Write the C-alpha cells for this entry.
Amino acid sequence: MGVIEAEVHSSLRAFLKAQAQPTWIHHLTMARLVARALRLGRPALIQTGSARARYVLSYLTPALLWNDPVILVAPVAVQQRLLQVEIPQLQQWLETNAEIRTEDSPRWEGDFGGIILASPATWLADRLEKQGRFPQGIPTLIDCAEDLEEWTRQQLTASIQPKDWEELMQQFPHLRDLIRDVRVQLTKAIFEHPQTPYECCLLEVREQQSLRSLFKTLEQHPSEKLIPNAFRQFWHRWQTDNQFLWASVAREQGQFTLHCEPGSVASALSQVWLQQPFVLIGRYLDQEKNAPIYRQQLGLGELTCLKFSPEYQSDHMQLYLPDRLPMPNSPQFQAYLIPEIRNLVNLSNHLEGPAIVLIKDVPLKAQVGTTMAAEFGSRVQVEKTNLGENSVLISSWEFWQEHQAVLPTPQLLVITSLPIPSLENPRVAGQVAYYKQQRADWFRLYLLPTALRELQQAVIPLRESQGIVALLDNRVNHRSYGGKILAALEPCARIDYIDQSGMKMGLS
C-alpha cells in the first residue's frame, strides 16, 4: 500500500469513527482505490450500488489529501451539497489547506494544489472541442457516471431552433424565398408525422433531402462565412458518420427544432480518455463487474473495475411480483393495472412514508393520476416534491431519478412496467438504427442494459428503508430476460402478497 493510500485509510477511518453513526461499509475500500488511482495515474471504474450521499466521502478524502490538483466533474446540484456539507466537514477534520475552486474561478497557476469543481457540460465541451480551459494530464474524478453517455449526447447534438431561421434569412436576404420555402416544407412534413407523447419525430429521407439541398446552396454561395453558427455546426455534425436527424415539436406554437445526434458517443469519448487519468464513479453502470457493455458504449479501454454489491442485511428489500396481470403492451393491461394500484395504495396506509407509483407511458400516467386523485383526493400528487407522510406520488422515471435525493424515503414503490426504452421515441429509434447498421444486438447491448441501470437506481431508497417494490410487469415472469431483471433486484425476498397490517407476508 502506498503512502497516500495509508494516509487516506487512517484519516477516513478516524473520521467515520468520530461520527458515531452507521456508515457505508465500503468507504475504506473505495477510498483506497481512488487514492491508488491518483498515485499511479491509472484509470478506474467504480460501481457503488448505493445512494450518492453514502459514498461521496470515499472520493473526497483522497482528493483533499492529494498534494496536486484534481478535477471533480459532477452536476451542479451535487456540487452544491459537496460545497455546503461534505467538503467543509472533511476539511475541518483533516486540517487540510486544499483549495476548492469552481469552473468560474480564475485559471489556476502551476503550483495550485486542490480540487477544481466542473459541471459535466463545461468539462465535456473543453475536452471534446479542445478549448484548453482545463490543462491536460490532471487526474479527474467523474461522479454520476451513469449519466455520462447522455451528457455527451447533449454536448454532441447540434440543433437549429426557430429563431435561427430568421437569422439565416437576415444573413442571406437574396435567398429569403428559398429559405422560407424549405422551412414551410419541413413544417408541413414534420407536422404530418403521427403525434406521439414524445412530441418529436425522426426526419425521413425526403425531409432530409430538402434540408441538404439548402445547405448545398448556402455552401456554394460567396457569403458562406455568413452562415449562422447553429446552421454551420448542424451541417458539420451531419457530415460526420453515424448521425441521425430528428425534430422536436412545439405543436401549439406551430414550430419545430431540428437536432443532429450521433448514433454512438464511443468514438468521440475514446479521444477524451487519452487526455488525463480518470476515475468513473456511479451507482450502477453495468451488470458485470468489468462493465463490458458500459465500456463499449463509452469508448473505454482496459481499466481497473470495482463493483460493490448491496449488503443482504442492510440493503435488503421485499419484492412483490404478481403473475396474473396482462402484458403491458396488451389492450387489457390498463383495466387490470388501476385496480392493482388501488389495492396497493390502500395497503400503503399501514406503511410509513409515501408510496411512489412509476409510470413510463405518458397518457397512462395522466389517466392513473386522475383516477387515483378522484378516489384518494389530495393524498395523490402527480410529479410534485411537497409530499406528506401518507402521500401517493404518481411519477415518470425521469422525475423520480431527478428528485429521489430530496423526496421522503418511501416504503412502497410500484413499478407499472419495466423502463425499457420505447421505440416510439425517435431518439431511441435512431440509436437502435445505429446498432442495426453495425449488425449488433440492439436489445442486449442497448435497450436491456438501459432498463437494468434505471431499475437498479430507482430502487435504491427502498433498499435503505427495507421497503416493498411491487413490480407489475409480467414480462419478468415470461420473457427470457426476466432472470436478468430479477438478478438486478437482488438482494430481495419474494413475497406473494402484502397483508392489511402492512407486514411483508407470503415469502416465496
In short: The chain has three domains: 3-139+276-307, 157-262, 317-507. The first strand starts at residue 44 and ends at 47.
